Amino acid sequence: MAQSDVDVVVVGAGFAGMYLLHELRKTGFSHRLLEAGDDVGGTWYWNRYPGARCDIATTDYQYTWDPELHEQWQWSEKHAAQPEILRYAQFVAKKHDLYSGIEFNTRVDGAQWNEVAKRWSIHTSTGETITCQHYVMATGCLSVPKEPDIVGTEKFTGNVYVTGRWPHEGVDFTGKRVAVIGTGSSGIQSIPHIADQAKELVIFQRTPNFSMPAFNGPAPQDRIERLKADRVTYQHEARYSGTGVPLEDSTVSALSVTQEEAFVMLEEAWQKGELLSLGNTFMDSAINRKANDVVAEFMRMKVRSVVKDPEVAELLSPYKHGYGTKRPCMDTGYFETFNKPHVRLVDLNTSPIRSITETGIDFGKESMEFDAIVYATGFDAMTGAIVSANITGKNGVTLKSKWEHGPLTYLGLTSVGFPNLYMITGPGSPSVLSNMMVSIEQHVDWIRDTLVHMREQGFETIEPTPLAEEGWRVHCTDCADITIFQEANSWYMGANVPGKPRVMFPYIGGVGRYRLACEEVVNKGFLGFELAGSTKKQCNDGLVREVQPDVDMVLDFIATLNLPAMETMTPTEARAFSEASSAMRPSGPEVGEISDGVLPGADGELEYRLYRPATPGPHPIAVYFHGGGWVFGSHTSDDPLCRDLCAQSNTLIISVNYRHAPEAPFPAAAEDGFAALKWVHANAGALGGIADQIAVAGWSAGGNVAAVTAQMARDKGGPQLSGQLLLCPVTDGSHQHRSHIENGERFILTKSLMEWFWNHYATPEQRKSPQASPLLAASLAGLPPTMLVTCQFDPLRDEGNAYARALMQAGVKVEHVEARGHIHTSITMVDMLPSGAPHRREMARALRGFFS
Ligand SMILES: Cc1cc2nc3c(=O)[nH]c(=O)nc-3n(C[C@H](O)[C@H](O)[C@H](O)COP(=O)(O)OP(=O)(O)OC[C@H]3O[C@@H](n4cnc5c(N)ncnc54)[C@H](O)[C@@H]3O)c2cc1C
């Protein structure tokens, strides 16, 4: 007789539930595992349609928790077919006696949290109610087929099949007239097989999808050898990789090579017949539309090379979404199928289905009769199984209502208001964007370790905090925002199910980075969780990922280079180092004209670079001062940023090479700034600018020069400025600000580097002058409208914030942007860090606004 009160109830006996069952036994938790089907395997139990296959190679799509399996189970192919994967699941279940712990044919209909008893009540289709302390949804991301939303589906009297619920005995289509609706992964895999049997096959396509041939055969030899040589290292690399397969990340931009070269590289990946190799050819195809177009065009070229009818080839070629932004597919003879005389493609965009009828389908201006209809219409992905299991948490709130506008989770594992509820590969975790075996094992390990920790420490409940959950939502959104995934109407975005909220459901920041976040949460004492027992409580509230994801990647990359700290160099060495680093960056957008010249500074000539918009002039002018701590940099060193500002704001940018310390210490830079402004004002017409539409702008030490120049213009009789644009400006040499400590290390501009800059530029006494520390000016009244940008992880953040506040208090019109998750340098990194782009747009808008 099964216990009606246990430590843990698990729902689902796919690979996730099976492994968890093994771990619960090992760690001695009482448990029940309930499964709606009548065998193990989950996905591979239900999806028995012809051609069903895994797209991840067998070297990688297998359990790692039982090393013996690698010797005891030999895969026959590179990409295992459904029957073989199901046999593998059954083999594991038998080997570990899992069958005895699973209750099949038992569907979970509902669950309620009892806040008094601190337990869940679980209701099953057998009429039983089970109570438990912990409730785990191992219900799968793709286990609820989407109901076809087509008029008349119930009328059809022929045979109806759904790929995700395929009859166990198989289907013989020989001599039949068959319709397949849907050309996602299941459609693409099954269509060639159905075509082999059917008398007539009509495929109804709404969206063409990218697919590549699997070239099935033996598993990749190089990976087999790596695995054999050192399994532990191989698996470690997989766990900390981007996708859960240990491939080296590309460092090549698709835009840095010609199309011909790109196609050679893509062809090499294509021949490997591995989805992830193709997607990994270029570093930027997921984040840059133009880079993605290169891959997409290669894929379309492949379609054209196979499909004989050019019109059909065109219909089968995706144009509306980027490569990878919808789940790309692997096939065996899919496109070739359309060359067969009995196969027809119907484009639902021009010939929509009007209705399913008793005998067939009415579409466009036609009616056709069929013996069978196959719905390959996909799944209510990621949330379908969890939501349909009717979970009610604290205060009677259902998960369905909480997730009405999109799933809210902490780490994709837990959700506020639902204590002791765990989701394996839940929304907000890498899940369907990964080799799911790796993601499943990670979540099972995390849950097991958490349960053991709670038992050992006497905690009864665990629940994320609202702050942590919201922080994770923001982080997931930040990750998605820097990609082009959101442009596509994909099931990743919930777009395939009417009424489903349109958000990015899986975590797109990568398997390894995600794992590190989960580890950090635990290592920081369950950061963002409240743990409670009868006599104790622990809540270490906080956020696990605050730095913008692309910035974080750059910081990690820089850390691997083990570069010397700049403050250990001489100024000459630091200048050479800075120039060498700048040479490697993207150049920034095209502008109308770039020309160099000289202007009179306070003590001799200064070089300048002029960036002219492509539009007819004259233009308003921004006199720009570069960053570099008054020690290095030049009129060309902020080139990408100046181009970007010029192109986006339609403003003439004149970047000035003011004199540098220590050769020309304070107040040389300030005096040069003011001299340059006066010269530009006097020569505005000749430069193609408008004399009474001049602003100053600058970044970092250049922001300091700009702010000081604005004060000098106010105090010394003009020129009258239209505005000042200050990006992360130095405003106060006193170092009294908290951000110097909080952000003093790791974020490129460090506290000690900043001190090194000051030491070269100004003595402690000189720093008290407002021409060194503009924040210390007796009055800020009368300064021009200001756009001031500060970055969350910049040591200079607080002095920038203080300057913005002081300007406002002085009655100056100020727009202050606090760039969340950014560091001192990140907004200047044009075309490298997409997360900086919105702030640059804001800056350009503000600049335009100064002159309107
Ligand atoms: C066609 C197809 C191809 C795929 N290809 C790949 C691939 O190439 N690579 C990859 O990594 N992943 C792939 N996947 C994803 C695949 O789902 C996972 O790899 C993995 O099998 C998921 O295991 P799971 O245990 O988490 O969930 P599942 O295998 O989905 O198991 C969940 C189980 O929970 C049960 N269940 C759900 N709700 C209830 C309930 N209320 N009561 C009782 N039982 C319930 C279901 O019956 C099911 O058996 C594919 C999925 C599909 C559908």
Short description:
The protein is α/β, with parallel strands linked by helices.
Could you characterize the architecture of this molecule?
The protein has 852 residues and is α/β, with parallel strands linked by helices. It is 34% helix and 18% strand. The chain contains 27 helices and 29 strands. The strands form six sheets. Strands 1, 2, 3, 4, 5, 6, 17 and 18 form an eight-stranded mixed sheet that branches. It has an eight-stranded mixed sheet with strand order 22-23-25-24-26-27-28-29, with helices on both faces. 52% of the residues are buried. The chain binds flavin-adenine dinucleotide.
Question: What would the keywords be for this entry?
Answer:
binds flavin-adenine dinucleotide, eight-stranded mixed beta sheet, 852 residues, 18% strand, 34% helix
